[in-house]
TrEMBL record:
This is MFS transporter. The keyword Secreted does not apply. It is found in: Cell membrane. It comes from Faecalibacter macacae. The lineage of its organism: Bacteria, Pseudomonadati, Bacteroidota, Flavobacteriia, Flavobacteriales. Pfam families: Sugar_tr (PF00083). Its main location: membrane. SUPFAM superfamilies: MFS general substrate transporter (SSF103473). One of its GO terms (cellular component) is plasma membrane.
Length: 510
């Protein structure tokens, strides 16, 4: 087969694999992108902070079960083949996402709503647990020797592009609807649209051929009959599974989720920036940073995977506190000059049946163009504030509309974090594929990947938000930086293990 034909074939493989993987990541990230809205739909509204933490916990649950999906679908992939396995994961993911968009709210069906969301979120996690290993293995097994980093890095872009597409669909949906319409029913549209994208991707994947490496192994009768036992019951292979997890993927996972998800959550809930602005900022940074996945994947073919990934981790853990302090102070209204004559204070009452709320609104304008709004809603009983657990029952919502200069400062700071991500994530698929033989590759690489990303990375938004909330309640003036100790600690441990024990050469297994 000619070189040109080879290149045409692998581009088709990448296109078909990437589209399906992108859609699965889109499905998975829609939930996280709409976490603030979903917290008001599927959980009790009396305690917004608890509702948001519950939503993050449900979001994290999808990550926690990913290793189980890796084991289940990885086994299937090593027995029946890569193609049919990740076709099944695509359908499962798309169906679960579609159904989340159909679930009635908490006000309608009570605690059944969060229960159903949790079940579907778990199904999403299982599906994604089987998807990534299949797609990465499939592409790697089509790639020429010495070029796996470059070709698999195209698959690595799909996670970030999936997040970008999810943000884009949300912004477009909001642009066609009023704020009230989106809050009432429009948030369901991104979930429901998923089913159409999944159908198109399914038709494309249906016509794909099995990977040549697996086909050869099957023809020669060398495929595994018990991939789980051979992957994790074999001490020699298990050593590489553990090394992949604790020396590379664990750190990659926290760097990945810090730059893309914690940054989003931080800007929305700690910095109180308007949701639409946050989505726009993150979208621009993702668009500017995504090509570097391919750059660092290609570089890892030339200089080795190890130090490209580890240097990315080191830069991240050394600079996170500086970056997030700069982000927070950039929009901190205490650092800005208020135009006092433009301050608007309004008090009103809202009566809805037997419920009465007092709504106190303060709007402030600042010399640099920043706008700030705080709405305090108190629930009244017989004309007085309702007391819950010895405290006044009130909901305080702060919103900051940032100016153009601050916008680009934040884009730059997020972009730096995206670069860290591309360094650790660009080469990781090739790194994992090269550690394990064909007959157990799907299973062996999927587990450390999804434990590192699903457990260590997936828990990051919830753990970090909890640390920030605790520090704030404890009166810590730098409460907004406390959530970073989690990714910094995990990345530091991973860097040390990886630097000592990982070789810069692959195992050269077949």
């Amino acid at each position: 087969m000619s070189e040109t034909t080879n290149k045409k074939t692998i581009w088709k493989v990448i296109g078909a694999s990437s589209m399906g993987t992108l859609i699965e990541w889109y499905d998975f990230f829609i939930f996280g992108s709409l976490a603030v809205v979903l917290s008001t739909k599927f959980f009790p509204a009396d305690n917004p902070t608890a509702a948001f933490l519950s939503t993050l916990a449900t979001f994290a649950a999808g990550f926690v079960v990913r290793p189980f999906g890796a084991l289940f679908f990885g086994r299937l992939g090593d027995i029946i083949g890569r193609k049919y396995t990740f076709m099944a994961t695509l359908v499962l993911m798309g169906g679960a996402t579609f159904l989340i968009g159909c679930i009635p709210s908490y006000e309608t069906i009570g605690f059944i709503a969060p229960f159903l969301v949790l079940i579907l979120r778990l199904l999403q996690g299982l599906a994604l647990g089987g998807e990534y290993g299949g797609a990465a293995t499939y592409v790697a097994e089509h790639a020429p020797d010495g070029e796996r980093g470059y070709w698999t890095s195209w698959i690595q872009t799909t996670a970030t592009v999936g997040l970008f597409v999810s943000l884009l669909v949300i912004l477009l949906t909001k642009s066609f609807l009023t704020e009230e319409q989106f809050d009432e029913w429009g948030w369901r549209i991104p979930f429901i649209l998923s089913i159409f994208m999944v159908y198109v991707s399914y038709l494309i994947r249906k016509n794909m051929d099995e990977s040549p490496a697996f086909k050869k192994a099957k023809d020669e009768g060398t495929t595994s009959t018990n991939p789980l036992k051979e992957s994790f019951g074999n001490r020699y292979n298990m050593k590489f599974v553990l090394l992949a997890l604790f020396g590379a993927v664990m750190g990659q996972g926290v760097v990945w989720y810090t730059g893309q998800f914690y940054s989003m959550s931080f800007m929305k809930t700690v910095m109180n920036i308007e949701s639409d602005q946050v989505d726009t900022l993150l979208g621009i940074a993702l668009l500017l940073g995504t090509p570097f996945f391919v750059v660092f994947g290609w570089l890892s073919d030339k200089v080795g995977r190890k130090w490209v990934m580890l240097i990315g981790m080191l830069l991240a853990l050394l600079s996170y506190r500086t970056i997030y302090d700069k982000m927070y102070q950039t929009t901190n209204i205490e650092n800005k000059q208020e135009i006092t004559e433009k301050t608007i204070i309004k008090a009103e009452y809202k009566v809805d049946g037997n419920k009465t709320d007092s709504i106190y609104t303060v709007q402030k304008s600042f010399a640099d163009g920043t706008e700030f709004k705080q709405v305090t809603t108190r629930h009244l009983e017989n004309g007085t504030a309702k007391i819950v657990d010895g405290k006044i029952s009130e909901n305080i919502k702060k919103t900051t509309h940032i100016n153009s200069s601050d916008k680009w400062t934040l884009v730059g700071l997020i972009w730096i974090q995206i670069i860290f991500i591309t360094m650790v994530y660009g080469p990781i698929a090739a790194f994992l594929v090269e550690m394990f033989p064909v007959k157990i590759r799907y299973t062996s690489m999927s587990l450390p990947y999804h434990v590192g990303n699903g457990i260590f990375g997936g828990l990051l938004p919830a753990v970090s938000t909890y640390l920030v909330t605790n520090a704030k309640n404890g009166g810590n003036p730098e409460f907004y930086l406390e959530g970073l100790w989690y990714p910094i600690g995990i990345a530091a441990v991973c860097f040390i293990i990886g630097a000592i024990y990982i070789s810069n050469k692959d195992r050269n297994v077949n």
